[in-house]
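Two folds, back to back.
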Amino acid sequence: MTSRAKPAICLMLGWIALLWLLEAVDTATGNALDSFGIQPREPAELVDIVPAAFLHFGFGHLAANTLPLLLLGLVAALRSGVRRFVGVVALVIVASGLGVWLTAAPHSNTAGASGVVFGLFGYLLVRGFIERKPLDIAIGVIVGAVYGSIIWGALPSDSGISWQGHLFGLIGGVLAAFVFRARMPSGTAAPAVGRVP
């Protein structure tokens, strides 16, 4: 874990700094970057799936995402390593963005890192059970206890919040836990289940 700490911390602090810089540019240019949000079912908008995850509608929106993104991202990067973490985040961004593009309300514009937050939540929640690692199971239980209430944000609502981005981000995070699960070293037999010696 120690060898993973510095890259993980640098990555997450750099990511957060980038988000705040982008919002400062957006504010200074009269919200010009908001056009990179996702407008559903417009073919040309598919290219905005990735940039939309790095943009926000004001500093309040960004501030609400900053702490959970930093904490969940740090835990995920420390436990998974930066390379696997980047793969997890990429899958979550695509899943969340495509879900928004397919299902969001007509004429809406969606942006923000909350889909990634929900994805990291889902990833950490199930990763330990998939990989059968007691420490990661414990981390999943703690993450569930601390952030479990956000699950309500993945349910349909009329509050102006993109529950679609949250829901598909969560699904993407769970999927990523399967796709990027740790491989057993070659020559290591899987533990036998139900075998009588």
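---
second:
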Amino acid sequence: MTDRARRAPTGAAVLQPELTAAITEAVLDELATQGYGRLSMEAVAKRAGVGKSALYRRWPSKQEMVLAVISDFSVALAEVEDTGSLRGDLEATLKAVHDWLGHPRFSRILPDMVAEIARTPGIGIAVRDMIGGPRRARAEVMLKRAIARGELSPDINLELAMDFLAAPIYWRVNVRHAPLEPSYFADLVEMSLRALDAREV
């Protein structure tokens, strides 16, 4: 074995997963308690128990750090397995949307980020590309599976359908702050199937 092969990587090449996880949690906590405007790299580093250099080895700026953390969190919650039917997929997807929008920390982060998007258009573009795009891509796959199974018409407006799937839960949880009845998801699935003009196969 050569000296090069034996030598452990140093500096930027070493990004310990457990350290990244601690920083990620610190970013989410700081966003939830302080908001984007008051969040600082110093505060995140202190909460995570690391030096600021650990942050800058991963992200070059506060904005990129925040967007990367929110993106990883948000897109992971959009992963839903194929249940074999549109009804099952809708139920799983709607519950996943609720888990995302109703998450104890993210539900506090979201209103602040929406306000920040209005103030800083560049953040809005990044959120669309890093969060909205990937999440919608997963929803589109689900809907196209339903088309392939004959449950949805090939002529369905996919863009409108994807808007419809998230909107009721966002309005109920994040705008109205209303509780969900035990039958909420079953009722919403039924209404969604009717709205999408779905056919049972």
